[in-house]
Amino acid sequence: MSFAPSTTSVKLVLLGEAAVGKSSLVLRFVSNDFQENKEPTIGAAFLTQKCTVGDRTIKYEIWDTAGQERFASLAPMYYRNAQAALVVYDITKPASFIKARHWVKELHEQASKDITIALVGNKYDLVADDNDSDDSLRKVSMEEGKALAEEEGLLFFETSAKSSHNVNEVFVAIGSKIPEAK
Ligand code: GDP
Question: Which domain of life is it from (predicted)?
Answer without folding.
Answer: Eukaryota
